[in-house]
Structure formats: structure tokens, C-alpha cells
Design goal:
The protein is an alpha+beta fold. The chain has 5 helices and 6 strands; from the N terminus they run ααβααβββββα. It is flat and about 55 Å long.
């Protein structure tokens, strides 16, 4: 997050609170973190906060476009503060590590569907699955 979180909240007409700021800092510090991981980070930062308060804040920040929610198949939702661009993700099948992947070609090529069925498409979510370098090294080590 390059801009000050308080400024971002105010720009969207959202009241600035310590909890909201802490959630935004946690999302920024832990890209692709789950709500539970973000809650742990927030508790370490400001002390007590309920799980529901974290979930509510995450939901509101997603609705306001300040953070992005992704939910890979078979995985809990994950949150990031990289919004406003057409990037995708690669996820390790072994450890679940999630990494941003820039769109391969052009400005937004994934928004051109072969058949749109009459929809006005405004977003595409692509997730690549594979094995990260650390898990590959571990598999190789075990098989040696």
C-alpha cells in the first residue's frame, strides 16, 4: 500500500478507526493472508479485536475497493491490497504459497472472452496452480 491508509479511508468516506487502520496494515504486511492470519497480525499490533470485527472490516474494505478478496478453490478467502490492475495469482499445491502474476500480454487481454453470453465483463480472475520452488526442492530432497 503506497498511500497512507487513513487518507485512503477518508477518500472513500470511511471513518478512520484504529481497528480499520490495523486491518489495512495487516493486509499490506501479509499479502494473500487469510482472515485468521490477518486477525492474528492485528491482535499483535493493537491488542484485542474480535474475529467478527476483522471479518466485517475486511468485507467493508473489499466493498469499498480498498482491498481485493480472492478465493482459490478449496482454500479460505485471501486478501491483498493490490487493487486496480489486472493481475492474477499462482498458488503452490504443496504449501499454499500465493504469488502475484502480472497479466501476460496487453492491457487487459483476459477480459475478452471467447463467448460472453451477453454479459458486460469487467473483471477476470485467473489462478495458476503448480508447485513452488521450496516444495520442489523438498520433493527432490526426499526422492534422492
Amino acid at each position: 500500500m503506497s498511500e497512507d491508509p487513513a487518507t485512503l479511508l477518508r477518500a472513500r468516506g470511511i471513518q478512520v478507526t484504529a481497528q480499520r487502520l490495523a486491518v489495512m496494515r495487516a493486509v499490506s504486511a501479509r499479502p494473500h493472508g487469510t482472515a485468521d492470519a490477518i486477525a492474528e497480525h492485528v491482535r499483535a499490533d493493537i491488542g484485542a479485536i474480535s474475529r467478527q470485527a476483522v471479518y466485517d472490516t475486511l468485507s467493508m474494505l473489499v466493498d469499498k475497493g480498498l482491498i481485493r478478496r480472492i478465493q482459490p478453490a478449496g482454500s479460505p478467502a485471501r486478501y491483498e491490497d493490490r487493487v486496480g490492475d489486472n493481475h492474477h495469482h499462482v498458488i503452490c499445491r504443496g504449501c499454499g504459497r500465493t504469488v502475484d502474476v502480472d497479466c501476460a500480454v496487453g492491457e487487459t487481454p483476459c477480459l475478452t472472452a471467447a463467448a460472453d453470453s451477453g454479459f458486460q465483463i469487467d473483471e477476470a480472475e485467473v489462478i495458476f496452480w503448480g508447485t513452488c520452488p521450496d516444495c520442489l526442492a523438498e520433493v527432490r530432497r526426499v526422492h534422492e
